[in-house]
Specification:
By secondary structure, this protein is α+β, with helices and mostly antiparallel strands. Helix content is about 55%, strand content about 15%. It is built from five helices and three strands. The N and C termini lie far apart (about 35 Å).
Length: about 100
């Protein structure tokens, strides 16, 4: 007999997947998995994005609990708060998908 669907569980999983489902967000997570903390300027330089676009993605990831931030002087540094997303991305890298 199939077990009952745990709505809360599947909604949480879908929420995390939707939150990180953008190439630049995956790039930000990869970067922050290698560095304890980084500023917007550092992340922008590494990824080659515009600062406004980088800030948009950082704000989204922070709002949804994936990242945290800490102000040091005039700069804000971002860090991974939900470290499990690194494992998620690592697992998804092993999935074989045909490109369209």
């Amino acid at each position: 007999m199939p077990k009952d669907l745990d709505i809360e569980r599947v909604e949480k999983i879908a929420f995390v997947l939707k939150t990180v489902a953008h190439p630049m967000r995956v790039g930000i997570i990869d970067l922050l998995s290698e560095h304890e903390k980084m500023s917007v300027n550092d992340i922008t330089a590494y990824l080659g994005l515009e600062q406004s676009l980088t800030s948009h993605h950082l704000a989204n990831l922070k709002m949804k609990g994936v990242l945290g931030s800490k102000r040091e002087g005039k700069q804000i540094f971002y860090f991974l708060k939900l470290r499990e997303v690194v494992d998620l991305i690592s697992t998804l890298e092993k999935v074989k998908v045909n490109h369209f």
